[in-house]
Amino acid sequence: MADLFSLTEAASRVGGHVEGEGALRPSALSIDTRTIQPGECFVALRAERDGHAFAATAVEKGASSLLVDHALPLPVPQIVVPDTLAALQAWGAARLAELRPKAVFGVTGSVGKTSTKELLAGATGAWKTPGNRNNTLGLPQALASYPGGFDAVVLEMGMSTPGEIRRLTQIAPLDFGLITNIGTAHLENFREGQMGIAKAKGELVAGLRPGGAWAFPLEDRWCRWVAEQPWAAHALAVPVGEGDFGIASVESLGPKGERFTLRTPDYALPIQIQLCGRHQVGNAALAAVIALLAGFEAEGVARGLATVAPEPGRGRLHALKGGGWLLDESYNASPDSIQACAAALVELEGGEPVAVLGSMRELGPEAPAIHQATGAALKRIGLSRCWAFGEFARDLAEGFGPDALAFPDFEPLRDDPSGLGAIPPGARILVKGSRFWRSERVVDWLLLNSGVD
Question: What does the angle CA 420 – CA 424 – CA 425 come to, to the nearest 5 degrees?
């Protein structure tokens, strides 16, 4: 593994100069004094608040150095640049360019991109962007610490407005990509509606190197639309679901995950994953196909997929006392992801299938109607009861029907006798919601009060 850049090496790549000890090698970059670790270089970004005002705090917490747009009277070495954001992005881009592996993958989608990133990294043995560092700050910050020595890199690429993924592909040019789906997340930011979202997600395809390839679910009409656009013609579009690459013999293993067969033009590949739900079968199939197209060996791909375990907030399953289950999908929510997770829940054996849902965000003026439609869909899928909280809880409950209750926030949901304490013992429980409503509080309460087997 290669050493990280020294300050002098970094300065030469980001258009700055060093004041102080240029031989120092920071352990990583930090953009947040709340999470900074000793030895890291603090990047003083100018956003809603000026990061330079927090540099002293960063040094107090052990920052070894600073990336600033003017020298500060602090006792650590500093790289001084005209623009700290541009320098952060250049630092990450230079690190990847100098230690580039044989395959750089990009993953995006309205739903499931983080789980699919994990699956693809497992399938290829790749280095991956940690957590949800998928934007124009987090991705270059992560790349700055890329150690090299891998055959592949898997980068999650998110967006909330047009142009963000285009910028990410400029920082990290891609060889291969996949789009899990194109839904309605961040709809309020797109005047063209879902077509605008499709164009923004399609920036990943536009950013593929000539001759690259990308995979997508055949049933997603907006992914098919992207594949038909002139600006996508330089890359091979590979639909997954029928044709050359299909999914067969899907079998739910309950809490143990899913088993299926991936059909390719040359062979059938049996795959088993630990993640629960038919939607995770689709994600694993996308990961497998693009890994195979990149030249990774089939048996190794299958073995790698089998090692990926669900993370907290992203499909982790907890066995509760009395035979119940808690499906923790609390990290975020959209209409498509809520319905997919509900379908996974009803496949589990156990008691009454119920949901505790925080409201969704960034849906624009259609938010009430979307919540009502989502509630109705959950009832059709087979959930028997629903507890909703947050801004659009009443709309969600209205769509679900008389077996749903609405609460304005988590505290009333927790404290009301008809709230969390009324969930029956042995129930199968889905917990999901937007980041704003911090649905992980529901998970913590249920684990504490329901008991874990």
Answer: 110
Instruction: Name the β-bridge partners of 258.
Output: 252, 273
**Residue the block writes with tokens 């923004």:** 200
Please say whether the beta carbons of 429 and 350 come within 8 A: no
- Whether the per-residue pLDDT at 453 is higher than 60: the answer is no
Its pTM stands at: 0.88
Query: pLDDT by residue (tens digit) across 58-113?
Result: 999 999 999 999 999 999 999 999 999 999 999 999 999 999 999 999 999 988 89
Cβ atoms of residues 259 and 272 within 8 Å:
yes
Tens-place pLDDT, residues 178-200:
999 997 666 677 776 788 899 99
Q: How far apart (Å, rounded) are the C-alpha atoms in residues 318 and 453?
A: 8
Q: Is CATH 3.90.190.20 the classification given to domain 316-450?
A: yes
Would you say 371 and 360 are in contact if contact means Cβ atoms under 8 Å apart? yes
User: Strand order in 103-108's β-sheet?
Assistant: 127-128, 152-156, 103-108, 174-179, 208-217, 236-240
3 state DSSP class of 439 = coil
State the pairing for strand pair 103-108/174-179: parallel
Nearest of 150, 126, 136, 34 to residue 92 by alpha carbon? 136
User: Which of 1, 203, 237 lies closest to 101 in space, CA to CA?
Assistant: 1
Give how far Cα 50 sits from Cα of 43, 44, 54, 281, Å.
11, 7, 8, 44
What CATH homologous superfamily does 7-82 map to? MurE/MurF, N-terminal domain (3.40.1390.10)
Residue 30's pLDDT is: 97
Strand order in the sheet with 17-19: 17-19, 78-80, 65-68, 41-43, 29-30
Third-level CATH fold of 99-306: UDP-N-acetylmuramoyl-L-alanine:D-glutamate ligase (3.40.1190)
Separation CA 176–CA 123 (nearest Å): 14
From the list 134, 105, 113, the residue with the least C-alpha distance to 181 is 113
Q: Where in the chain is the domain with CATH 3.40.1190.10?
A: 99-306
Domain with CATH 3.40.1390.10 in the chain: 7-82
The edge-to-edge listing of strands for the beta sheet with 404-407 is 316-319, 325-329, 428-432, 353-358, 385-389, 404-407
How far, in whole angstroms, is CA 273 from its chain's centroid?
18
Judging by DSSP bridges, how do beta strands 78-80 and 127-128 pair with one another? Answer: unpaired
Residue matched to tokens 């990774």: 296
Residues 220 and 185: beta-carbon distance below 8 Å:
no
210: confidence class by pLDDT, cuts 50, 70, 90: very high
